[in-house]
Structure formats: structure tokens, C-alpha cells
Amino acid sequence: MKRVMTIFTLCLLCITLNAQRDSVIVREKKHNPNYELPVVHGFSVNADVLSPVMNLVHGRVYGGECHIDLNLFNRVFPTVEVGYADAVQNLGMDVTYKTHAPYVRVGLNYGLLKPFTKSGEHRSLDCYPYVGLRYAMAFMNYDIQNLVIEDKYWGTKDVKNFTNPSVYSGWMEVVAGVRMNLARGFTLGWAFRFRALLHTTAEDKVFVHYVPGYGKSDGSAFTFNYTIGYTFSIDGRKPVEKKY
């Protein structure tokens, strides 16, 4: 009798374990269609070719800038933009404003296209749109020459020059653009930017009439830039075949 009970118990245990095993659902880890592994896919170096031309249109401004961004997940692009500008502006009444300074912008671009389709296949595009955000800063010197200060009470005029004070200015930029991949890793890009000056260490904003990397400080502005560059692929894919 004990032997029968033992056999019955073992059989019941086997049936229970087998039922539990069949009830377990093995869930495969689904791929996230928004981001593509590995994390780092490459980096790009770009030069702004439009800003030097536009600077000459808006006055005697010389300089240039370059952009470097890192490709993370084929979706997120941390970006650093560095440049230098030397400007001479005529403010009227023989008043001359001069400034020269390096400037830097740091921020992030976010690709608007998913790297994968809904079926999980790679999406291969030669161009992709993006939006971005920047915080920018310029450590500048400026000269104001032949500035006439009039004392209406005493009826006197005094000509003063302000020479080379160190000033820090910071601003924010919202960016929307497109980058297009060409053959052999070369790229073209263009972007619209909205700029707003946030703060300056100058006693009065009028003393920073022109901010390198920003432009005239009398208000916010929309600007446009056009870049050419080269993409270095780390994941082994040719840049022209990059998946977005």
C-alpha cells in the first residue's frame, strides 16, 4: 500500500511540475524601435560656410565656426559648436564699436525619425530632420570710441572711450534643421535658429552692441546656417548607408 501511495505521489508531482512548465510564457526582449544599439555609432565634424558671408552683409565682421556632434543610438546627438568673431560696427555720430572674442555653444540634437520601422527593420534614409537646444556663451572684450556724453543741466559735452573691459554674455538657441548624407561620408546641413540673449555682466546691454556668436544684442532673432562636414562611422557602416 505504501508503495502504491509513493508511486501515486510521484506521478502527481510530475503532472504538477509539467503543468507549471507549460504555463510559463517565455517573453523575448523586444527591440526598442526608437534607439539602435550599440550606443555610439560615430561622430561628425562640420564647418559653417554661411555665417562668414552673412557677417559681411551685416557689417564688418570676420570669423567662423565649426560643429562637432556625437551619434548616440542613431537618435541623440550631443553637440559642441565653437567659433571666433572680430567685429567693427559704426553706431553713428562717429561712434565706433569694436569687439573680438571666442564663443562656444553646447547642447543636443534629437533626430525626428526612428531608426526602425514598425516591423523592426532598419530605416535607411539619406537625410533626416532634427530639433535641438543650445546654451551659448562668449567671453568678450569691447571698445567704444568717441562716445559723446551730454550733461543737459550744465550744457556740457564730454567725449569718452571705453577700452577692453572683460564681459561675459550668455544666450539660448532653439534649432530645427536637416542633415543630408552624401557619398564617402561627406554631409550637407542647414538649420534655422531662434536666439534670445539671457544675461550679460556689462553694466548696460547697450555696452554689448554686438555679441560674437549671437549678433546685435537689441533683441531676439531668427538666423540661418549652412554647413558642410564629414561623418566618421564607428560601428562599421558607411555614413551614406546610415540607418535612421
Structure summarized in a few sentences:
Helix content is 12%, strand content 57%. With 244 residues, the protein is mainly beta.
Per CATH, which architecture?
Beta Barrel
Total DSSP E strands: 10
Look at the structure and give the mean pLDDT.
Answer: 81
Instruction: Enumerate the spans where pLDDT stays under 50 for 5 or more consecutive residues.
Output: 21-29, 238-244
**Would you list the SSEs in sequence order as H and E?**
HEHEEEEEEEEE
How much helix, percentage-wise, in residues? 10-25%
Which fold name is given in CATH as the topology? Porin
Shape: elongated
**Total discrete domains:** 1
Helices, by number, come to 2
Q: Going across the major beta sheet, what is the strand order?
A: 1-2-3-4-5-6-7-10
Largest sheet: 8 strands, antiparallel, barrel
| Structural class estimated from helices and strands | mainly beta
Strand content: over 45%
CATH class designation: Mainly Beta
Structure description:
With 244 residues, this protein is mainly beta. The chain has one domain: Porin, CATH 2.40.160. The protein contains two helices and ten strands. The strands form two sheets. It has an eight-stranded antiparallel barrel. A hairpin with a 3-residue loop joins strand 8 (210-211) and strand 9. The longest helix has 22 residues, at 2-23. The protein is elongated. The N and C termini lie far apart (71 Å). Mean pLDDT is 81; it is low at 21-29 and 238-244.
